[in-house]
Amino acid sequence: MKINANYGSLEESYLFSTINKKVEAFQAAHSSASVIRLGIGDVTLPLCETAVRAFSLAALEQGKADTFRGYGPEQGYGFLREAIQNYYASFGVTLSPDEIFVSDGAKSDIGNILDLFDEDNTVWIPDPVYPVYRDTNQMAGRKIVYLNATKENDFLPMPDFTQHADLIYLCSPNNPTGAVYTQTQLKEWVRYALEQDAVILFDAAYEAFVSSPELPRSIFQIPGAKECAIEFCSLSKTAGFTGTRCGYTVVPEALKRNGFSLRKMWLRRQTTKFNGVSYPVQRAAEAVFTPEGMQECKAHLQVYQKNALQIANTLSELGIYYTGGIHSPYIWMECPHSMKSWEFFDDLLERAHVVGTPGSGFGVNGEGFFRLTSFGTPQATQEAMERFRAVYTR
Ligand code: PLP
Known about the structure:
By secondary structure, this protein is of the alpha/beta class. It has helices at residues 15-29, 49-61, 78-90, 106-112, 131-139, 183-196, 236-239, 262-273, 279-288, 291-318, 341-352, 378-391, and strands at residues 36-37, 100-103, 122-127, 143-148, 167-171, 199-203, 229-234, 247-250, 256-257, 260-261, 322-324, 330-334, 354-355, 357-358, 369-373. It is globular and about 60 Å long.
């Protein structure tokens, strides 16, 4: 028996446990302090009413013999795949339901997709980054090359045509930096991937936060992307499904490598290792894509967008550099007075009783930066910003 020793090379993920320990210690020492958390990546608003109604009705259907449903199609029910197909059509992307795979969220698919690729592949991953891309590749022992996402390139690394990559991770709007690729930039990435026969793994988990029609919400808005990209998306942040669990992955029919159809491979993988998302969850997800559902989810997103604007305005007022916040729930700020990420974490907690996420936890280029999220309540966000103003005056 040989163990997968690659697990030994994984870094322990201390980020959120260290944050929690520090906050607990602070609360123990200052029991009357009210701590505001702007660090979490989880939503605070509930599911929209239309989704809850559909969810409940479907649960009741499961309790009656004539409407009960057992195993469903591994790829997702047709009703949901068609709803997703129509959603994509609303921003100009034509997909066939066969290219859409319903899942229990983007995280699992992002990890599972690696079943399709040999271990001997060069993987490009931006730094700072959503840690799942890095860890899932390290688990398989793949060679990772990090792409520097820095203030100089607005946290949007571009391809170096003199170097070869096989797999490329792009996340736009980005977690943690909130940066969003333009059409022109994504065109360059698609040109690179087609030239190198590489595959882009495009994470669109935050696409619903894009509020300008000029900015791409899907890589498939770029001509040629269907020959070189897979897209992951999620209802977690769009519709508050973090605890309900539903996402989808698009593997285009046109994506072929070494005589293999990646869509067929993914279908084979899913039918072998996955038994689908529960029927009530898929009905709730379908309801999100109805006009009423979209309207209600939009109203929720607007609450987060207003919070983000409030954070962004406060930082602008204080003369603190930041990215994100406009087309993203994340605000990526430079730590004031050249503090390091953890130094600023402690300072902010001690002096303002506000919690955020140290940028260094997302990669070496995150050092000196800090992530704030707009997922708190408007009251908490406003209060946190008042404290910011009081402590970090210019
Ligand atoms: N991709 C990114 C960039 C994320 O930040 C997250 C969650 O925070 C996910 C994917 C995972 O989403 P899901 O809840 O659908 O698994």
